[in-house]
Write a structure and sequence with these properties.
single chain; HIT family, subunit A; 5-stranded antiparallel β-sheet; 7 strands; about 30% helix; binds zinc ion
């Protein structure tokens, strides 16, 4: 899989984002957001991140604040908070990115494709009619036209608004 226009990838290659040093969902503890870690929102129940390796513009990740691996580890309150946040994320992305639809889901365990299986997380991927999948399938090329920093700057005020 090749990805076009990915200036942030050099940071990854150069090891500047500290991925190796720990869990991305547990980064910047105690801070409500972090541009460096792409954390858009945090409260006692959950955290919302932008995916550093997105399938599409606005690809978000929602995870419980606690470092837990399985659905059965979640309390009823955490489940309810996460469900409400998935709805809120879709509402925000409709406003900022005007998608035609979404893929929203969970990969449970490495065998199911979870990149970070030790910390449960949901993916929210905005979709547009005629978006990149056609190109991905045919040419193994993925186009991400908007830089992650720009997307972060557009989304952060929405998550800060109550
Ligand atoms: Zn974690």
């Amino acid at each position: 899989m090749k990805t076009l226009w990915t200036p942030w990838r050099m940071e990854y290659i150069e090891g500047k984002n500290g991925r190796e040093s720990g869990c991305i969902f547990c980064a910047a503890p105690g801070q409500p957001h972090s541009a460096k870690d792409l954390i858009l929102y945090r409260d006692p129940a959950l955290v919302v991140l932008m995916n550093r390796f997105p399938y599409a513009n606005g690809h978000l990740l929602v995870a419980p604040a606690r470092h837990v691996a399985d659905l059965c580890n979640l309390s009823a309150e955490e489940n309810a908070s996460i469900a409400a946040m998935l709805t809120r994320c879709s509402t925000i992305l409709r406003k900022t990115h005007n998608p035609d639809g979404f893929n929203i889901g969970l990969n449970l365990g490495e065998v199911a494709g979870a990149g970070l299986a030790s910390h449960l997380h949901w993916h929210i991927v905005p979709r547009w009619h005629g978006d990149h999948n056609y190109m991905t399938v045919l040419a193994e090329v993925r186009t991400i036209p908007e830089h992650l920093d720009n997307t972060f700057a557009r989304l952060l005020p929405e998550f800060q608004a109550q």
